[in-house]
Amino acid sequence: MEINFECKKCGGIFDSDVGAVSVSEDSFRPQFENEIICPKCGQRSIDDVLLTELGQSQLTEATFDFELEDIFDSEDDELNGFGFYEGECQGCDIFQSLNDLGLCEECAGKLDRDLIRQRDWVYSVSAFGVPESKLEDLRKEIIKHYGEKLELIAPTNRTQKKSKKKKRKKKRSGKRR
Ligand SMILES: [Zn+2]
Ligand SMILES: [Zn+2]
Q1: What percent of the chain has pLDDT over 90?
Q2: Which of 23, 73, 90, 96 is the most exposed place for a label (fewest CB within 10 A)?
Q3: Beta carbons of 82 and 90 less than 8 angstroms apart
Q4: Minimum-distance ligand to the CA of 90?
Q5: How many whole angstroms from 110 Cα to the centroid of ligand 2?
Q6: Where would I find the H helices in 47-147?
């Protein structure tokens, strides 16, 4: 791999292909497979050069490869899985992993379909990025597969009072937790 160095002798900044990078178990200093070559001064030892800021991050990436991969993996899990946090789902009241809206995976899907049924395209995850001309097709698909009835959103007016009461209760219990 290439690492960006600054030559102590000539002050030049250059990339040098150092090959594989490892860390010495005794001194914890980086060890390179190839020699560091300054384009002006030729072969340089690790003591004859400085790491530039870019070189430092390149080296950190190389020596902490495994740790970095672990970090990226866990971030992916958070995005796909509903591991945002655990709690009582706002939709079905079951205690489980929730997304950032406080919904479980199943209820999040229901809500998304409801939004599409009501043509609330802007709030729907599935409709995101879908061209306007295709939105009605998407809605038709949803209704074909899941029916026209709203799954999660309470129909307005009739049950509005009820759902308001429910929400207040939930807030209070949330504080106690
Ligand atoms: Zn040099
Ligand atoms: Zn739920």
Answers
A1: 50
A2: 73
A3: no
A4: 2
A5: 9
A6: 53-63, 65-80, 105-117, 132-146
